[in-house]
């Protein structure tokens, strides 16, 4: 059985769902923390934290992004939500009242790199394959594992098809026994801070020329080609090739 790092910065706090503390549009992934507390933890706004609620059957976990800070009680954390059921779905407590949890600056599991162990413990792990050199292309999958299934496999597959084995691949794999990984671990991609993900931080400043990111969405029957590119024909070329591959597998 793995042990989490005993020296990580964490503290117990009272968590209160309160959508009025946040600007619109609301998000089920945002929280507001006392400004002095996060300063002592070495954190800033827009970084991620891990919230841990002990229960009789183990620990209920969830990731949040610090959207704002406040100057109210030091050990008080406010949680944003979209639907009344959001907090209950994540923590198993009613949205109406406060509850006790621990806030932790260490987002990913410490000392746990094996995916099978991550599945066994319903954990969140970060992976990076990198040669410390390439700055042309990076392939990423921030929501692998059970959040957006197969996106981590797709990222690894693309890297294997390229002529060089030096393409960095960064991914997170997130698991939850019995389902519910999305509610527990999902952080919107535009909120992800490299300061909260140690392996991502090692390559963040390399200024890659190109990046391919894999994501999943709703219906599971469509393919969306997103991103910004100066080449107006590139997306059409990608679309044609994906359609050709899809027909070849029928």
Question: In short, what is this structure?
Answer:
With 250 residues, the protein is α/β, with parallel strands linked by helices. The chain folds into 2 domains: 95 residues, Barwin-like endoglucanases, CATH 2.40.40; 134 residues, no CATH class. It has 7 helices and 10 strands.
Topology, element by element:
Elements (H helix, E strand, L loop, with lengths): L9 E8 L12 E5 H6 L7 E8 L2 E13 L5 E4 L6 H6 L7 E6 L10 H6 L3 E6 L7 E9 L5 H11 L7 E6 L6 H5 L12 H7 L5 E4 L20 H15 L2
Parallel strand pairs: 1-5, 2-4, 8-9, 8-10
Antiparallel strand pairs: 1-6, 2-5, 3-4, 3-6, 7-9
Describe the structure in your own words:
With 250 residues, the chain is of the alpha/beta class. The chain has helices spanning 35-40, 86-91, 115-120, 151-161, 181-185, 198-204, 234-248, and strands at residues 10-17, 30-34, 48-55, 58-70, 76-79, 99-104, 124-129, 137-145, 169-174, 210-213. A 6-stranded mixed β-barrel has the order 1-5-2-4-3-6. It starts with 9 loop residues before the first strand and ends with a helix.
């Amino acid at each position: 059985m793995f042990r989490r790092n005993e020296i990580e910065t964490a503290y117990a706090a009272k968590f209160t769902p309160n959508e009025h503390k946040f600007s619109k549009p609301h998000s089920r992934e945002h929280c507001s923390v006392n400004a002095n507390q996060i300063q002592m933890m070495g954190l800033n706004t827009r970084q991620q934290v891990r919230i841990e609620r002990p229960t009789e059957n183990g620990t209920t976990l969830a990731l949040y992004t610090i959207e704002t800070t406040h100057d109210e009680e030091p050990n008080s954390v406010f949680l944003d939500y979209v639907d009344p059921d959001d907090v209950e779905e994540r923590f198993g407590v009613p949205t109406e009242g406060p509850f006790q949890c621990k806030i932790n600056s260490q987002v990913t599991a410490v000392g746990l790199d094996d995916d099978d162990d991550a599945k066994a413990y319903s954990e969140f792990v970060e992976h990076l394959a990198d040669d410390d050199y390439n700055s042309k292309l990076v392939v990423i999958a921030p929501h692998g594992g059970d959040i957006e299934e197969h996106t981590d496999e797709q990222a690894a597959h693309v890297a294997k098809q390229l002529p060089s084995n030096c393409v960095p691949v960064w991914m997170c794999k997130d698991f939850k026994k019995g389902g519910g990984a999305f509610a527990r671990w999902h952080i919107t991609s535009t909120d992800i801070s490299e300061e909260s993900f140690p392996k991502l931080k090692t390559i963040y400043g390399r200024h890659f020329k190109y990046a391919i990111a894999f994501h999943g969405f709703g219906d599971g029957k469509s393919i969306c080609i997103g991103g910004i590119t100066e080449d107006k024909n590139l997306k059409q070329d990608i679309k044609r090739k994906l359609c050709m591959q899809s027909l070849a597998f029928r």
